[in-house]
């Protein structure tokens, strides 16, 4: 995931968390307000309406001659002797209608239906209508027995309504207290929810800060340290890279830049070194080649003038061989400092390597070593510069023969690797092996561990292989402490390489 995408995800999470917290807060406040205010308002409305109904019934009871105490209803005067005027009868009816109207208004209040119940409201309505009917019979009746029965029924109805409304008010007050208690519980629950929301936002912010520090701050600090180390000349420092986002790519590019700087410095030192050696070699060749040519010519003339059995003849031959060896050394010294250009062409590998081994058999026989060749997995042809690659392989063969013990074997193996598109030539010996600490220096110009060695052969072999676009290396076949474990030098070339221009020595 890229750094930009991580920031977008982080901002999205923060936005969702903050928005959710705001929504939860608004919802909680509104819910708490509704749960605490609305039921109280509705219960107050219901209680007020019931109180109006109750007062209306009291007024109605007074119209027909009843006296209403807080706990009971009594008759003011004998009911059978009282005569009611039309105005009193009409007022009684109006009070009854008002009581029913106020009771009907409770149907629109949710709290009355929930807390009082539909059956309770219906029962009240039926009872009030019954009281209205019995009161009118009492007020309009002419037969004493019927009036008395109606009066008793009205009085019983009013007494029942008085008791029932009192119980209903008490129950509503109890339920109001329960509503307040419930609202308190809801409030505590909502406060807990709010606290959890705030805590979640804080945890999200803390997590975001930690991730930002890990994803950005610490890694930018690593890049800053790397830049300071580069500025101080420490090009061996490397930035730790674990992913593939923007900062990882910057760190990888810094590492590549430092590697390039180290490589360029090494190449520059190598070029300067080779330039100095080349200048010295050309000066030596110019000043020594002519005298050496004269010495060799004089030695040849002296050899020809000496008799066949003259011991001086052998001395002259030694002089000639020494001069030739010294001239070859001068040529090698010049070749390592001269530009190198290879021209690969299709070549048959078998005949080429067999001829090269035959030219080295005399040297192997003088050392008591044997040369063997394994071409079982070798390609028939490959692209390489025959003349230059012979020099490289000759250096490997010569080193292997020189370190081989009496009766040792130098084995040359050529095989192809189709998966990698290369062919590999390996020269294995049974010598003492190579100390691990000098493995990386074997192909450095003028580095040698042999007495009388020049350190040119392997360095020139590396140049030739590199110009073929291949690689060359060495490794121990076992442990250095194990006698006869030997070493293996190898080179790998592409089956269809591209020639390269030399960069070292130009």
From TrEMBL:
Membrane topology of this protein: Multi-pass membrane protein
Keyword set, alphabetical order: ATP-binding, Cell membrane, Kinase, Membrane, Nucleotide-binding, Phosphoprotein, Transferase, Transmembrane, Transmembrane helix
UniProt EC number: 2.7.13.3
Molecular-function annotations in GO: ATP binding; phosphorelay sensor kinase activity
Limits of the HAMP domain: 214-266
Domain Histidine kinase, chain residue ranges per copy: 283-497
GO cellular component: plasma membrane
Pfam families named in the record: HAMP, HATPase_c, HisKA
Location of the protein in the cell: Cell membrane
Keyword Mitochondrion (UniProt): no
Official protein name in the record: histidine kinase
Organism per entry: hydrothermal vent metagenome
């Amino acid at each position: 995931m890229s750094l930009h995408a991580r920031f977008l995800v982080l901002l999205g999470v923060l936005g969702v968390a903050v928005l959710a917290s705001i929504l939860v807060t608004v919802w909680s406040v509104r819910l708490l307000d509704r749960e605490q205010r609305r039921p109280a308002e509705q219960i107050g409305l219901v209680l007020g309406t019931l109180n109006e109904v109750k007062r209306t019934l009291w007024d109605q009871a007074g119209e027909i001659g009843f006296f209403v105490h807080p706990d009971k209803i009594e008759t003011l005067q004998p009911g059978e002797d009282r005569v009611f005027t039309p105005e009193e009868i009409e007022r009684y009816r109006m009070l009854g209608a008002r009581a029913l109207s106020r009771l009907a208004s409770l149907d629109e209040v949710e709290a009355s239906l929930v807390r009082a119940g539909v059956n309770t409201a219906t029962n009240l309505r039926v009872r009030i209508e019954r009281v209205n009917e019995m009161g009118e019979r009492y007020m309009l009746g002419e037969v004493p027995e019927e009036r008395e029965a109606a009066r008793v029924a009205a009085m019983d109805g009013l007494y029942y309504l008085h008791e029932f409304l009192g119980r209903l008010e008490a129950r509503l007050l109890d339920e109001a207290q329960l509503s307040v208690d419930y609202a308190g519980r809801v409030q505590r629950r909502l406060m807990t929810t709010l606290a959890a929301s705030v805590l979640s936002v804080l945890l999200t912010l803390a997590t975001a800060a930690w991730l930002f520090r890990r994803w950005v701050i610490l890694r930018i600090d690593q890049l800053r340290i790397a830049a300071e180390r580069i500025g101080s000349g420490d090009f061996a420092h490397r930035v730790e890279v674990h992913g593939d986002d923007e900062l990882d790519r910057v760190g990888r590019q810094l590492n590549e830049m430092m590697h390039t700087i180290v490589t360029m410095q090494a190449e520059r030192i190598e070029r300067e070194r080779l330039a100095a050696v080349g200048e010295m070699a050309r000066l030596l060749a110019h000043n020594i080649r002519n005298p050496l040519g004269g010495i060799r010519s004089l030695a040849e003339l002296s050899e020809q003038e000496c008799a066949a059995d003259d011991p001086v003849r052998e001395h002259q031959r030694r002089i000639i061989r020494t001069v030739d060896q010294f001239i070859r050394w001068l040529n090698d010294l010049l070749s390592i400092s001269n530009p190198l250009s290879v021209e690969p062409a299709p070549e048959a590998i078998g005949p080429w390597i067999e001829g090269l081994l035959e030219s080295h058999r005399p040297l192997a026989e003088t050392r008591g070593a044997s040369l063997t060749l394994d071409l079982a997995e070798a390609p028939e042809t490959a692209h390489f510069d025959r003349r230059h690659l012979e020099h490289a392989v000759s250096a490997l063969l010569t080193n292997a023969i020189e370190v081989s013990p009496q009766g040792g074997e130098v084995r040359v193996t050529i095989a192809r690797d189709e998966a990698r598109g290369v062919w590999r030539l390996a020269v294995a010996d049974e010598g003492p092996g190579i100390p691990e600490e000098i493995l990386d220096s074997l192909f450095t110009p003028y580095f040698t561990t042999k007495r009388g060695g020049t350190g040119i052969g392997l360095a020139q072999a590396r140049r030739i292989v590199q110009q073929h676009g291949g690689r060359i290396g060495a490794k121990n076949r076992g442990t250095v402490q194990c006698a006869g474990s030997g070493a293996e030098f190898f080179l790998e070339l592409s089956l269809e390489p591209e020639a390269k221009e030399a960069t070292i020595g130009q």
